[in-house]
Amino acid sequence: VTAQYLLASLVRRVYPADSRWLAVVAVLLLQGALVFHGSMTLSPDAPLLPVALCVVLATLRIADGLESEEIGRPSNADWLWLGVWIGLAGLSKYTSVTLALSVVLVGLVRCGWRLFVQPGLWLSAGIALCLILPVLWWNWSNDWATVRFHTDYQFEDIERWSPTGFLESTAGQLLYYSPLVIIGGVAALAGLWRRRRRAIFDGAEGVLVLFVLPVLALYLLTALESRASPHWSMLGWLFLIPMLAAWLFEHWHGGRFVRWLTGISAAMSIVIYLGLLMLVLPAGQWPDYRHPARLVLGWEAAADRGRLLLSSLPDRGFTSESVLLARNWHHAGLIEWYADQPVQNLFHDLNPVNLRTGLSDRETWGVLIYPWDSETPRMENMA
Fold first, then answer.
1. pTM higher than the cut 0.85
2. Of 46, 40, 43, 51, whose CA–CA distance to 6 is shortest?
3. 121, 234, 337, 350: least CB-packed within 10 angstroms?
């Protein structure tokens, strides 16, 4: 609800002279995207969305002040709140680093290198740094574990970049965000470029563009390597929604394409939400191991069964205690949630579970919880 209100406020801020229905359309576009619901409500993206919108609104206020000749604009309070929002975004999720980059880009466009002699900029940076200090301290104390985890996971096989991976990721984007958000958003950006070209970064729309491009560029980099999750581009499409709403108002009566695109996207959203409703209601019977949500169902029963088997294991004379084991850290996290005890995984790569519970080895023994339709367990990982 907070994110919807802030999105509507952003639309009114960027397009103050346009129809008030523009904000309503923007909120409907947000609601029509599957990725803004479901599992996102229980992920770091949930607090990141409203905080990121606050960062954009605060940056717009500061950008106006940087261009103004009035003494005292932007005020220290404006910079202070910007630092607070960036800091809170940094505590929400690591991808919020693009927000700080965008703020700097906006400042450079507005006042050039004079940005770096603005006391407020350093006030804002200092506040943001203080807020994310716990994250930085933990990483420093643990050999920058989370930084190494994300960089190793994303870029360890740089030669795997391929157009095929990009096309697969794009197909996922169309499903999770709807064709209207993806195609219409790109069309809105292209239209802005045709109208302004060299002045594309001017005005409030230009600020939005500077927040959109770093996110989508980072997503493109990971999508080409076939390792992009659909929600990683979320902030980019979120910031594009105001421009998309304005694009719809401008082109609605200009051709059938826009109306067809809107109709197809609306139909897709309705079908997807009805399908999600079927998953949580006992309206349909699914064969064993064929439920569409099988990747997230059944883990509680598996954890209970695993604990029962673990408690009944005979003493085989091992020097270590018996433990629950999982194929990888994704499965281990799900089992830990229900088993309420540490779970080790078979892979020895850098991941959160191995940092927390330690590595498995030849002395590790216990109960392995493994999906029935997965590949044969790779026991060599325990060597």
1. no
2. 51
3. 337
pLDDT confidence tier of residue 279, bands split at 50, 70 and 90? low
Query: Which two structure tokens, joined as six digits, stand for 123?
Result: 């006030």
pLDDT digits (tens, 9 = 90+) for 196-232: 887 888 889 999 999 999 999 888 877 776 666 778 8
Torsions phi, psi for 366 (to 5 deg): 155, -140
Over 250-273, what HEC string results?
HHCCCCHHHHHHHHHHHHHHHHHH
Residue type, 305: R
The residue type found at 156 is E
Token pair 């096989």 is found at: 157
With left for phi above 0 and alpha for psi between -120 and 50, is residue 366 left, alpha or beta?
Answer: left
Residue written as token pair 């897709």: 268
Question: Both tokens of residue 174?
Answer: 């169309």
Indicate the DSSP class of residue 116. Answer: G
Cα–Cα distance, 264 to 257 (Å, whole number): 10
Structural contact between residues 82 and 35, judged by C-beta atoms closer than 8 angstroms: no
Structural tokens at position 233:
């581009």
d(CA 220, CA 228): 8
Which two tokens mark 125? 């940076």
